[in-house]
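Lab notes, practical 5.
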Amino acid sequence: MTASIDQNTPLTMRPKWNADGLLPAIAQDARTGEVLMMAWMNEESLALTLEKKQAIYWSRSRQALWRKGESSGNVQTLIDARLDCDGDTLLLRVDQEGSGACHTGRRTCFFYTPMSGEWQLEEEQHA
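Output from the prediction step:
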């Protein structure tokens, strides 16, 4: 069984910024496919990311550009950027340098798992 492809899909798409002028951006390890983090981008941070090939996000708490890895050294070099079919979410495929993407020191920000009705910390497995 083959999925049918919508022939009405537009050839071009513009980002659909939310009411605050932001768009969620998912950072994914380009080598492994692992989802590393989610952050917000505005028009300026997206333009700078595409120009400099380095992930630059918008910090909602500081109301300022946030250059990933500027203080930690955990830089994300942009490999590829994609806009989803609705134009309201970005996927950034990156080369993650340093220990990881999360401010906690973990490789990924996604480390809580549902167990027994609660979201519990799942420690990383080391080989």
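Observations recorded by the TA: The chain has one helix and eight strands. The CA atoms of residues 31 and 95 lie 7 Å apart.
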